[in-house]
Inverse folding.
């Protein structure tokens, strides 16, 4: 029997398949405009690997969790990220998930979610902010981090994504080096994330979600939180892994 | 004295609203006196005693906020904007047909909004003390209640006697008792009613001109629920997590927060806002020597975050958590409500000290953050 966790987020859909408690397979696809289509696409991909409703139990999570018709169960991404992070890190601490649409802080103790925070509807300090800024600067996320590492402190003071974009445009207009702007963009996200996370403080943090392989961001977060921040490539799938684990319960 | 014409946009309204207007118009044409009230600090016995029907005008809909924002700043509490918007757009029959509106100096937003409201509709403002603990606070409030009585007597050409006040107290106590009885239906596990059902029943009642009718309506609901429960009917599953809702008035978020709680495995067992048990359980001694004084003293005992200090609210919530065997506390803060927002730090500390999970939701009446609210509430119930 396979346990399949499907995490349909606002920008990417993540799938984790567990077999006898071990991670057997992961899949990553863009969510696109239609979560229902994405769910169908995932089903096909899994079927190609021999995983079907005959031999698997599906649990859906994330914003698109209601659009997975073949899922037997659905859970919120907060519970799933908590479970998934516990599976990956096996330590008490606070999970930081910087998602495409919202950022969450989840305080874990002995594998249980004790407390969580999530940003309000504003997109500051989320993946959306980074997406808009990278588009504006004509960079990929990796390039942005790489440039920021060589930048000198520059402040983007506006917390609002729309206003911050205007601020970046003025910086470009003034001829500010792209390295410095990149530095300012990432500091803005880090500041906002840390503000949110400070409501669920801990002495150990774990970064899950799409930025888990970005050493620069991990470093800046750790610096601002004055505590270690751990991550690993699989942390991108934390929500999906957590959902797959739910299939057991 | 009063204008009985319908508003200009009347023909464009949906039937329910048209009916509301027609009922209010009929009430007025038969000589009914109508006052709009906005806050639980308003001493309703004084209005009752003068034969003046009172209706709650607290705005709970997003619909009139764009109208309100033509005048008021965007960054203001939705309750204030909605209330003003109803008056400004002439979309609320009760605001429209009110002879007078009675407001109070609670928060700064309301206080200043009333000045603008007064340009649309005659508004009397009761001046609340900033706190309850000064030795002269009760005297100030007594003078304010007396002033309201005099203003009403003059405006409506009536005399409000001690006897009228005692009768009104008796009636209001009766309503309070039956409301408390309704709240206490939630003590059993599982509770006898859905919390949202109660919220809606209460909201409906606040639009009735006739107090007896309102009492009968609530009593009917309570009896029905008790009978059904005794017959073994369980509307709420025993597994439902028991939620206490605290913070700002919740009339405008019944759908957005209340329904979301109850559709995601929770049940509201205690509504700990100003229209809930903490206010309703405050009775008035109908045999007090000075009845006006007894009335004013009772109203000043109400706990709202506009008071400083406001420790009584925390103490009461603590009692409610025990009384209703609460699993989790959700605090609803309406956007830009500074007093409840700041005070939420104290509430959170108190609740977490009891080992009870606490979730704060800062929101307004729009649907923009419905997705996020649903995720947060569902996740909160999952961890309980």
């Amino acid at each position: 029997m396979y346990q399949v966790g499907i995490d349909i987020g606002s920008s990417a859909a993540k799938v984790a398949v567990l077999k006898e408690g071990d991670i057997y397979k992961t899949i990553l696809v863009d969510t696109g405009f239609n979560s229902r289509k994405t769910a169908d696409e995932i089903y096909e991909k899994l079927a190609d690997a021999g995983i079907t409703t005959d031999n698997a139990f599906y649990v859906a999570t994330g914003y698109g969790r209601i659009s997975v018709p073949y899922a037997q169960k659905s859970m919120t991404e907060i519970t799933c990220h908590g479970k998934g992070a516990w599976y990956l890190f096996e330590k008490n601490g606070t999970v930081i998930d910087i998602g495409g649409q919202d950022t969450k802080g989840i305080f874990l103790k002995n594998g249980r979610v004790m407390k969580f925070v999530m940003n309000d509807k504003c997109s500051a300090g989320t993946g959306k902010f980074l997406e808009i800024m990278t588009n504006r600067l004509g960079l990929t996320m990796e390039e942005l981090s790489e440039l920021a590492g060589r930048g000198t402190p520059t402040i983007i003071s506006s917390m609002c994504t729309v206003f911050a974009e205007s601020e970046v445009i003025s910086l470009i207009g003034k001829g500010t080096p792209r390295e410095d702007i990149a530095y300012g963009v990432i500091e803005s996200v880090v500041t906002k994330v840390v503000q949110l996370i400070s409501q669920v403080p801990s002495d150990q943090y774990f970064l899950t979600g799409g930025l888990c392989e970005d050493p620069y961001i991990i470093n800046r977060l750790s610096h601002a939180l004055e505590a270690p921040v751990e991550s690993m490539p699989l942390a991108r799938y934390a929500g999906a892994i957590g959902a797959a684990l739910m299939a057991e319960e | 004295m009063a204008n009985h014409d319908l508003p200009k946009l009347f023909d464009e309204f949906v039937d329910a609203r048209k009916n509301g207007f027609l009922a209010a118009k009929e009430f007025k044409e038969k000589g009914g006196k109508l006052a709009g009230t906005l806050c639980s600090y308003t001493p309703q016995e004084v209005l009752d005693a003068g034969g003046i029907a009172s209706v709650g005008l607290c705005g709970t809909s997003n619909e009139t906020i764009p109208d309100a924002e033509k005048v008021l700043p965007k960054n203001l509490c939705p309750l204030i904007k909605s209330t003003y918007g109803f008056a400004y757009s002439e979309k609320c029959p009760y605001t429209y047909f009110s002879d007078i509106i009675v407001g109070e100096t609670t928060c700064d937003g309301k206080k200043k909004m009333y000045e603008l409201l007064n340009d649309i509709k005659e508004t009397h403002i009761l001046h609340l003390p900033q706190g309850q603990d000064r030795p002269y606070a009760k005297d100030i409030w007594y003078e304010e209640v007396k002033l309201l009585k005099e203003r009403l007597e003059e405006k409506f050409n009536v005399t409000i006697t001690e006897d009228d006040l005692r009768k009104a107290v008796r009636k209001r106590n009766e309503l309070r008792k039956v409301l408390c009885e309704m709240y206490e239906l939630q003590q059993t596990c599982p509770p006898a009613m859905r919390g949202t059902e109660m919220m809606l029943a209460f909201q409906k009642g606040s639009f009735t001109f006739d107090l007896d009718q309102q009492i009968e309506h609530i009593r009917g609901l309570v009896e029905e629920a008790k009978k059904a429960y005794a017959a073994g009917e369980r509307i709420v599953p025993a597994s439902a997590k028991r939620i206490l809702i605290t913070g700002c008035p919740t009339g405008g978020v019944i759908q957005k927060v209340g329904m979301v709680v109850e559709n995601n495995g929770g049940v509201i067992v205690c509504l700990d806002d100003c229209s809930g048990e903490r206010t309703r359980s405050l009775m008035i001694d109908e045999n007090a020597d000075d009845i006006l004084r007894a009335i004013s003293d009772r109203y000043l005992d109400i706990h709202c975050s506009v008071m400083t200090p406001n420790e009584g609210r925390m103490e009461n919530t603590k009692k409610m958590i025990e009384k209703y065997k609460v699993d989790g506390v959700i605090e609803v803060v309406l956007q830009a409500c500074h007093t409840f927002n700041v005070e939420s730090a104290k509430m959170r500390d108190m609740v977490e000290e009891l080992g009870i999970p606490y979730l704060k939701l800062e929101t307004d009446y729009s649907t923009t953050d419905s997705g996020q609210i649903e995720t947060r509430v569902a996740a909160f119930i999952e961890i309980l």
